[in-house]
Amino acid sequence: MTLFRSLLYDLIIYPLIPIMGILLLPAALHSKAGAYWAVKLYVRIALRLLALICGLRTEVRGTVPTDPVLIAAKHQSFLDILILVDALPEPRFIMKRQLRFVPIFGFYAERIGSTPVSRGRKGQAVRAMMADVQAARDTPGQLVIYPQGTRTLPGAMLPYKVGAGVIYTRMGQTCVPAATNVGVFWSRRSWLHKPGLGVVEFLDPIPPGQALEPFMEALESRIETASNALHEEAGFRLPKTAPAPE
Asked: How far apart are CA 68 and CA 221, in angstroms?
């Protein structure tokens, strides 16, 4: 039954992207505010149908940032993107460059000010990302970056990339870490959307001024600790780590 409900949900929300994208195109072309209205309308429909069809409810915890801050978020599935877009007043994302060429999706992502980045050589990719971010530094809203660079499974230990730290140190902005447990219910490359409560939690801000290395250490520690707590709250058993050799 969970698989049937999940497939039914997917058959509704993914075709809804081009349908709503085309129908609401005049609003998006008129202004960025119109583009945000269209995107948020789609997200609200998607979240309500998720609760109705799959029994997967969502919740936002912590203080939702409303100022122009950097948000470094745990990324586990399409669901945490939906929650962030719904919660934040004006989110814009650091996204894979390939996504800009996805019909409708790419147009709306760029219309709200998202920054496409390439997954090329590390130095070149970071320099290109910073050039785009600095060019848009006066753009209002909350800049969202996924510091691990990809979706992760609950309990998986993927390294944190330096991009979030580079933006933080060079832009001099407050960084708000965000934890999540949505992968317990809707994981990457899975057809299943299990019933439960998917949470995105905004954590205490990291004020500007820290050096790169201590910032990255604090960021990873806060996000992973809070995400693991949310995983356990959702009933997910974290893998046991082997004891260090004596």
From this structure: 23
Range(s) of the domain holding residue 119: 57-233
Q: Is residue 158 part of a domain?
A: yes
Give residue for tokens 């995983």: 231
Query: What angle (nearest 5°) sits at the alpha carbon of residue 69, between those of residues 110 and 155?
Result: 85
Number of domains in the chain: 1
| Residue 24 neighbours by CB distance under 10 Å | 18
Ramachandran angles phi, psi of 21, nearest 5°: -60, -40
Q: Identify which of 107, 48, 227, 28 has the alpha carbon closest to the alpha carbon of residue 238.
A: 227
Tokens read off for 68: 């122009």
Percent of residues in the chain assigned helix, strand, coil, to nearest 5? 50, 15, 35
pLDDT in tens, 175-227: 999 999 999 999 988 899 999 999 999 999 999 999 999 999 999 999 999 99
**Amino acid making up residue 58:** T
DSSP 162: T
Q: Within 10 A of 236 (CB to CB), how many other CB atoms are there? A: 16
With 0-12 CB in 10 A as exposed, 13-18 as middle and 19+ as buried, what is 15?
exposed
Quote the pLDDT of residue 181.
97
> Is 82 part of a structural domain of the chain?
yes
Looking at the chain, how many residues does it have?
246
Name the phi and psi angles at 183, rounded to 5. -65, -20
**Contact at 8 Å (CB) between 182 and 76?**
yes
Q: Tell me the pTM.
A: 0.91
144: left (phi over 0), alpha (psi -120 to 50) or beta: beta
